[in-house]
Amino acid sequence: MLFGITPPRRSASPERVREIASVTLQRLAPLDLDGLILYDIDDESDRNPDERPFPYLPTMDPASFYETHLGEWDRPVVIYRCVGKYEEDELRTWLTDLDLSRVLSVFVGASSGGKTVRTDLRRAQKLHSEVRPDLPLGAVVIPERHARSGDEHLRMVAKQERGCSFFISQVIYDAAQTRALLTSYASECQTRGLPIRPVIFTLSLCGSPKTLEFLQWLGVEVPPRVSGMLLNSSDPLADSYRECVSIARELVDCCADLGVPFGFHVESVSIRKAEIEAATDLAIEVAGLLRGTAVQ
């Protein structure tokens, strides 16, 4: 059970950064979490030419924010790396200096094929195998891509063969697409005699039309039934909460049937206080479901 946060804006004052860190630790303390995800944010306007619903604002380096301000956090941290932002020597130094007692990482490639990068994903994965193969390394998995091309499970296997030991999904609002991907992935692993790696499913609430627009801008495919419900709801936050819990239950059953190790990750793509607070409530409920203590 993971919870994801974005580091403070790079422009924030030291006092404001300390305040955000303190509030974050207080918010996370009562949650039944196994770890924390710290995102590495990159400008993705190259992937989607439409205007970004929420402006892109550069954020602090997630590793620096963790090391400097989250020292009280006593559980594992998954640090994302948008590897295209970094020179190879920067990644090499970071990997070399890592304290592996609590740190895992997820390498993320370019947001589009035409984007100029300093280090591409395959080279970063190769660097991991050369410098710190003992670092648990994850990869992003996108069920929507499987629905379009039918080969996302092969991407998973290829990343697994390049050293990835777990996967974290993009935000899920279509359980059927995710079921189809998991079925293909489990079958491919069985055919090749490969271990089935854990898949962490990302859930995020949608409390407003603006948040829905942003989720869709990010590439999340929200089924027409769900988007229509949220756009016409008098309380979209409550309705999306129920939808996320329903998706979680469905994926628990799916993974049990297929023998796929799994977990959940809750995040908020909105900075609205109500959505952030509801995300912590969702994390509590999903943790109960994951631990087998949820009310059916």
Description:
Helix 3 (88-97) packs parallel to helix 4 (121-131) and helix 7 (175-192) runs parallel beside helix 10. This protein has one domain (2-290): TIM Barrel (Alpha-Beta Barrel). The model has no long low-confidence stretch (mean pLDDT 91). Helices cover 47% and strands 15% of the residues. It is of the alpha/beta class. The protein has helices spanning 14-28, 62-69, 88-97, 121-131, 143-149, 152-161, 175-192, 209-217, 224-232, 236-258, 273-291; strands at 2-5, 35-38, 77-82, 103-108, 137-141, 166-171, 199-204, 262-267. It has an 8-stranded parallel beta barrel, surrounded by 5 helices. The longest helix has 23 residues, at 236-258. It contains 11 helices and 8 strands. Helix 7 (175-192) links the parallel strand 6 (166-171) and strand 7 (199-204).
Give me some keywords for this one.
single chain; TIM Barrel; globular
Short description:
By secondary structure, the protein is α/β, with parallel strands linked by helices. The chain has a single domain (2-290), classed as TIM Barrel, CATH 3.20.20.
Low-pLDDT runs of 5+ residues are none
- Gross morphology is globular
Q: In total, how many beta strands?
A: 8
Portion in strands = 5-15%
Strand order of the largest sheet: 1-2-3-4-5-6-7-8
**Could you give the order of the helices and strands?**
EHEHEHEHEHHEHEHHHEH
The name of the CATH architecture is Alpha-Beta Barrel
Helix percentage: 40-55%
The number of helical runs is: 11
Mean pLDDT figure? 91
CATH fold description: TIM Barrel
Distance between the termini: 19 Å
Largest sheet: 8 strands, parallel, barrel
CATH class: Alpha Beta
